[in-house]
Amino acid sequence: MRADSEPASISRRAFLDRYLFTSLAAAAVTALAPVPFYLRPPPAVRPSRIPLGKASRFVPGKFETFDYGGRGAIALHDGAALRVIDRHCTHQGCDVAWTPAKNRFECPCHGAVFAPDGTPIRGPNDGPLAAIPFRITPEGDLEVGE
Amino acid sequence: MSWIEERTGVGEALRSLKARLSRPLPQGSAGAVLGSVAIFFIVVQVLSGALLAIYYVPSWNEAHASVVRIAKDVTFGWLVRSVHVWSAHLLVATVLLHLVRVFARGAYAKPREATWLVGVALFGVLMGAAFTGQMLPMDNEAVNGAEVAAAYAREMGMADVVRGGPNVGAPTLTRMFAAHVIFVPLGLIALVAAHLALVGRHRLKGAEPLEGTSPVFLHRLGLSLIGAVGLLATLAIVFPAGIGPPPNAPDAPAATKPLWMFLPVYQAAKKISGPATLLLLLVPPAFLLAVPFLPRRLAVVTGALLLAGAVALGILGAAS
Q1: pTM score, two decimals?
Q2: Are strands A63-68 and A134-136 parallel, antiparallel or unpaired?
């Protein structure tokens, strides 16, 4: 459209029409702008100091799964040491299963295999399973988390 | 565009809607936009409520934490929640002004009795929406509110219907949630549609002899909506909605006050006990439903007395 096809001035009524329409359209766009941000869920808070009872009950072979901030986790004694491992498989995020008979983790989705400390042995993976920090209090209680 | 128009007629529908909104207004109708502003707030409620439902967990034990998560952790969650809460307050306030204005103008008279009655039903649904909505965060005010509602319902032998069981508990929240997110919106959609159809049919009081077109209503509506958006945004951003402690928290106050629109009943109920409390709940709606059929003078006097009484009780209740 050529510029000189616009009238030199617009009527008061047309101005009001455009003013109201533009303002309301701008308000609608502004109001919708936060929605995409709102839809993305905030990361689950990693809980600190989840009590798992006395550390001494984790005798060799003993294991216990628990919820760690929305992720599956496991505490186990593999005969060598007490370990607390995030069960989130590094391949595509399935929860790996602890197989006590073979002393290793096996992923049900694509067959990845990990050692008790999370080190990958074979199968598709993107690094070791995450170790979750833990401490044993002076009273002998096992506390998981930062 | 003509492809769409040929198949849907959406442009024609919009032009027809615009023509209906471009009919000339009678004198003294500056307040005629109040109903439209109320519908705007209803739309805001539906949209912001749908967003809240994404994160809200309707569980007796998890509801409070989920609302705290919306308010603290979710990006812009505080804003969505504040908009929902403030828009609810503004909606009830707008509807009250609309009701008082229509009453004062006697615009409910023949042939608009049905419009008025549907409007009264809408007002009732909105009060129900406010009550069930403030229950959902499951803070101490919510639980106290449910206890009070059950106490009123007991006088009608309906306490179990409100509570969903012998006590206020998990089934109560499930009921309030279903009422708030399913029954209230369904009722609003049906009643607003009926209300608008009736307004379209009968036009405004005094508009019958007016012919031609006029942009006045649409311009007033546009300006009013800009004002409504500005007010809502200001309130929601400057005064974000808070949330009380959970009901069993050590710092939870034992007694709480209801939402402002329930303060008149709350205050009056302090002096009344037993079945007479029912009168507090039944007289105002009974009067509103009877208004179109009462002699004008009787309706005006009774209405003015009830309104003055409600305002006075509300102020006393707020100050108590």
Answers
A1: 0.80
A2: unpaired
